[in-house]
Write a structure and sequence with these properties.
Elements (H helix, E strand, L loop, with lengths): L7 H34 L11 H39 L9 H11 L2 H18 L4 H6 L8 H17 L4 H5 L1 H15 L15 E2 L3 E2 H21 L5 H18 L5 H18 L3 H26 L10 H7 L3 H21 L5 H31 L22 H17 L3 H6 L6 H8 L2 H11 L10 H30 L5 H16 L7 H18 L3
Antiparallel strand pairs: 1-2
Length: 550
């Protein structure tokens, strides 16, 4: 009996498949290492305490990109070639009909989400911004010590796709973010009272924890904490010890949030609390969890207030909002009210009489009223500023107040926003579309900006050079133009919308969406830097990875 000859493709298939799977496994390990470096190592990384700590973290992010690309890019090239060989051996060369435009579009719709498309568009817009830039030397890596140029921006996009596609899910790796951030938050809270368990050179109130500058710390804090707060709100913790651990985490997070010193973090907290309140209306258990979180927040403020009043701890950084939440009657009022609402919800839930209609009405009143107040504030700000202080003159307010938009408004946001807008406005049509180049706002401002623009910057900041507008989207508008802003905003907005909408079936994805939302809200008054953008890129990738589970 003659033996059947094995076909050439059947011999080749196991070899090509095994090669492909091996390189895929190696790529997966590389992605795991990168996630570990960003989420676990980078928050603690510094060389000499607070001395050039921002540059240290930027350099760390830069080195992760350089060494990672030397390994990952060859792997991707090998996998691409191996994948093509596998396809040809098993399915043959696709004919023209198979490669029709219609079939390609259908395949792309199946494989790429709206967030993917905007991420790709952002990557392309960053490259275009670099090619059209007059400051290519700066644009390649960005301002020295800051490093937010072409390569770091593309790293964000590549990391997002690698984690969402090439990473084999490991829940324990994601869970490491909890103990890491807990330690960072605990150190931040202690630092506010002059306690430094870790020796950090150049200890000063404007630096905090192992992150550095207050703005940097706040950017990291909001990018992590509110995702965990969402998990506590959404998940039913069946074991008591799990719930207690999560409550302990929230207490430390709230404690450092109200004492860290950046107003943008407090504004972000207000937005996220309102958003969770709105989501809680339709579910009695969620509403109970929401008010329990409010109790924890209020009690944390009250305990801090008691320690300050009794002289047990002396805070080293004074701010109006810090005193409002930790050195006034507000914590007492908040604690009593939140306890009353939590008890009411708990009692009605136990009796099976959750008053959903009442809570729906309250949510409309509170959330709608909050939005109306913000709109009213903007209108009054515009009227008072345009009218030369017409409202201020009828009150006891000073000329430099929150209702007068000036260079000093909002901790100098008036100056930074004005500079950012003028940088955009003074561009020609091409550069309004493409931008001055990644991380090149400083280069344009001081190199080609008008006398008026330079005067605004120098009057407010003196010899210190302004590298960004302290508003992420405005800075992107300047650096990457309208093309960059639309694609970046699209990436973030679609991720927030898609991730949070999946909250009933994909809790981790929804938590990632909350992190992106908090990051975005905070960065309306802050800026993109290596610590927060590296963290949020990983979170975006993890969220998309869990989203693509099916």
């Amino acid at each position: 009996m003659k033996k059947k000859k094995r076909s050439r493709s059947s011999k080749a298939e196991p070899i090509s498949v095994s090669f492909y799977e091996f390189f895929k496994y190696v790529l997966d390990l590389c992605v795991c290492v990168y996630i570990f470096l960003i989420l676990v190592v980078m928050p603690f990384y510094n060389e000499e305490g607070f001395n050039h700590i921002g540059t240290d973290k930027s350099t760390f992010f830069k080195n992760c990109t350089i060494y990672g690309s030397k390994i990952v890019l060859p792997l991707l090239a090998i996998m691409a070639v191996t994948g093509v060989i596998m396809h040809i051996r098993t399915k043959g060369i696709p004919n023209g009909k198979a490669l029709s435009v219609k079939s390609i579009i259908a395949a792309c719709k199946k494989q790429f989400s709206s967030t993917d498309c905007f991420a790709l568009a952002y990557g392309i817009s960053v490259i275009i911004a670099y090619l059209c830039s007059d400051y290519k030397e700066t644009a390649m890596w960005g301002v020295k010590g800051w490093y937010m140029g072409l390569i770091p921006q593309l790293t964000v996009v590549v990391v997002y796709f690698l984690i969402s596609r090439a990473w084999t899910r490991r829940n324990w790796l994601v869970a490491l973010i909890l103990p890491v951030s807990f330690i960072v938050f605990a150190l931040g809270y202690l630092n506010r009272f002059g306690i430094y368990p870790i020796d950090m050179k150049l200890e000063a109130p404007e630096f905090i924890s192992t992150i550095g500058n207050i703005n940097w710390y706040c950017g990291y804090l909001v990018s992590i904490f509110f995702g965990v707060m969402f998990l506590f709100w959404k998940v039913e913790w069946k074991k008591v010890w799990q719930q207690l651990l999560m409550m302990g985490y929230l207490v430390i997070g709230f404690a450092t949030l109200v004492t860290q010193g950046s107003s943008s973090g407090i504004f972000t907290m207000a937005v996220l609390f309102l958003f969770l309140f709105w989501l809680s209306v339709s579910d009695s258990r969620s509403m109970e969890s929401f008010w329990l979180e409010m109790v924890l927040f209020s009690a944390t403020c009250l305990v801090t207030c008691i320690m300050r009043v009794c002289g047990l701890l002396e805070i080293t950084y004074i701010d109006t909002l810090i005193d409002l939440f930790t050195y006034s009657l507000i914590p007492i009022i908040m604690t009593l009210l939140s306890l009353a609402f939590w008890a009411w919800v708990r009692v009605t839930n136990n009796k099976g009489r959750y008053p959903q209609k009442i809570w729906k009405g309250l949510s409309v009143l509170v959330c709608g009223g909050s939005i109306a107040l913000v709109v009213l504030f903007v209108i009054l700000l515009a009227i008072n500023t345009a009218g030369g202080g017409i409202i201020t003159k009828m009150t006891t307010m000073s000329e430099q107040n929150v209702l007068t938009f000036s260079p000093t408004w909002g901790s100098n946001r008036g100056a930074t926003w004005t500079c950012g807008w003028l940088c955009f406005w003074e561009q020609d049509v091409l550069h309004k579309l493409t931008g001055v180049g990644p991380d090149c706002m400083e280069a344009f401002l001081y190199g080609a900006g008008s006398a008026e623009l330079v005067a605004v910057a120098e009057e407010r900041f003196g010899t210190a050079r302004l590298t960004n507008a302290h508003n992420e989207w405005l800075t992107i508008l300047v650096n990457m133009g309208l093309l960059g802003l639309v694609s970046y905003a699209g990436m973030m907005i679609t991720a927030i919308k898609r991730y949070i909408q999946s909250r009933n079936v994909k809790v981790i994805t929804a938590a990632c969406g909350i992190c992106v939302l908090a990051y975005t809200v905070n960065n309306m008054f802050s800026f993109q830097q290596s610590m927060n953008i590296a963290t949020i890129a990983v979170i975006l990738g993890i969220g998309e990875n869990y989203m693509r589970e099916e």
